[in-house]
Specification:
Low-confidence stretches of chain A: none
Largest sheet of chain A: none
Number of domains of chain A: 1
Mean pLDDT of chain A: 90
Oligomer: homotetramer
CATH superfamily of chain A: Tetracycline Repressor, domain 2
DNA sequence: CATGAATGAGGGTTCATTCAT
DNA sequence: TATGAATGAACCCTCATTCAT
């Protein structure tokens, strides 16, 4: 593992835990075992370091969602929707710090980077929303989902995702997995066709 | 409005937007129209200022939820559960910055205050959870809610709350109000007794 | 005891322990039970407060030495010289903080007050030196002290005083009293006429 | 001379003259020709800078005394005791500021460093006391010193040292040298065997 | 690629002091 | 006489960054 990669890896966990402003470069380099100016051999500034990590995280996030969707191509609508949740979260649960970094960057971006970051979020979200809409529509058409306004269903699903997202902060992996299952059952019985 | 209160008010919006580490006292005092050391006439430190605001926000949050619960004492179980959501969120929507402050402090507490903050969160949450449990139990006993493990129902409701909480970031008041209503319908039809 | 006097008393112990620069007014007023600006009701500045205490201490020091000299008017030369040491030090031992204040002000005066302080030291010292010289001369003339250059004897006596002064820092009252006696015996046998 | 050493050298004279609390880092760095944060490239804090200087001074003090003792190994007991005084003081006289620093740190240590400093003093003093005791005992055994309680003799010698120490503040080198000699003669004739 | 030295800017905090009350 | 509010100056220290090596 190169110094550059070590810096990025360590920086990510620090930015996740302490935020951009709350993390001095010295905290990162100290853990890497290198002096602070070493950062400037690879990154133009602290901002660039952050941005570089951010791009990686975004890419990973995007791929994990995409993968989850593709893995679930062959089940019932319920299974496939559930798989989206499960897929995204198994990834996140196994990359906890990356997830926290992502969420933090999304919800509370460092002031000087705000614009750049917000720009980049839309894309991934768009892809995800599209896929969910497709599934919900299919569900309605095949009758497994109640015939309500599609937007309401989408809102509900996204709300569910957000709630589950937040709850990852409170529970450990095992508990979380179970809760995820239970909550999904509840939600499904709310939208399932009668 | 006293200087002390001005400082707290301005500080809250700054802490909400920029976070604890991202907000120098000078940014606050400059907006208040006072020099930085003036803060120390009222608060022992930056931490204490933050904590003082935090206590207020927590208290307000607590009261708004409590009020909502009490206002709905005479309705059906569904109405009362919904009222908990609505009450909390009408308050939060009309106090946007306070809500952001609250959420940020909860999700990403400044490192040196983490312990103190988490402690205080527990108490408020506990009260809320207690009330919800009571309502859910009553709902099951009267048959308006399906007879499932009470914990699953609670998890679902809390997940819903969290999700709605997060979504407040994306939508404006009007849209949010509507979404809240729709999502609730979805959720309720998932747990309602058949 | 008036507030003014309380301030002076408390300030003296603080200046003695922590020095002028090491003692904030707040430390003094806190112990007195008053707010800091109260000092300015009685003293024009921190410097003036210090100077006011200094004058008192100097006066007390002067009187204690004078008293010791007068009390010993009727003994042998040895008794009277010893009395000067004993008198000065019984006073100092029973006013420990005042002594420390005095010594500190003398040896390491606060920079902005240096000139004023040094000016005032000479007087007291002069009186003391005069009296000692008189006694030593009398001792030589009466043969109880060896006939050496008077200045050497004076230097020896002053060196003894200084040494004893310093040693007050190390020992408690009882031990000190005994050491004083022993050391005097040694010194006297060094200058006594044979 | 490295910047680090320059800082230490300049700091020592400032701490000697103005004391720890009375010397801002800026005063030191300004004289060195460097900005204040440069101090932190070499020392962790103002306290550490002080401590670092203190260790040097202590070591020098220790060595100078030790050297004086060893240089005088071949003389009479009187010569060797005198040499301890002379050796220590020729060093101190030629390193005036170091001496003032030493004395100030010993008598009025900066409050936050008091414990650490006092601890370190004991060690050096212990070595010195041991050597003096050996010499005094030898003197008694060979009859050149009167047979008194050894502790009284030690107290007297230490009191003499302290007195001479204090007097260094008042006189210049030449005068001091002469006084040292005279006072020693006096002291020696007080303890010398008859 | 990485360091040690150094800096400019700024951060939180303390402190003596002022002033209206 | 004494206070609470407020300030200007200064202090110690941190941090991102530069640069010669």
């Amino acid at each position: 593992m190169t110094t550059r990669d070590k810096i990025k890896a360590v920086a990510m966990t620090h930015f996740a835990k302490g935020g951009y402003e709350g993390t001095p470069l010295s905290a990162i380099t100290k853990e890497v075992g290198v002096t602070t100016p070493a950062v400037y051999a690879f990154f133009g500034s602290k901002e660039e370091l952050f941005l570089s990590i951010f791009e990686d995280v975004l890419k990973n996030h995007y791929h994990s969602v995409k993968e989850a969707i593709e893995e679930a191509k062959s089940g019932t609508v319920e299974q496939r929707l559930y798989q989206i949740l499960r897929g995204a979260f198994t990834y996140h649960v196994s990359h906890e710090e990356e997830t926290i970094f992502y969420k933090r960057a999304m919800m509370f971006p460092p002031a000087p980077l705000e614009d750049k970051l917000k720009e980049r979020f839309g894309e991934t979200e768009g892809m995800l929303t599209g896929e969910i809409l497709t599934l919900l529509t299919e569900g309605i058409e095949t009758g497994v989902i109640d015939d309500r306004p599609i937007e309401d269903l989408l809102d509900g699903f996204l709300c569910l995702m957000d709630g589950l997202f937040l709850q990852m902060f409170y529970y450990d992996e095992k508990k979380y997995e179970q809760k995820l299952h239970n909550i999904w059952k509840l939600f499904w019985s709310g939208i399932a066709g009668s």
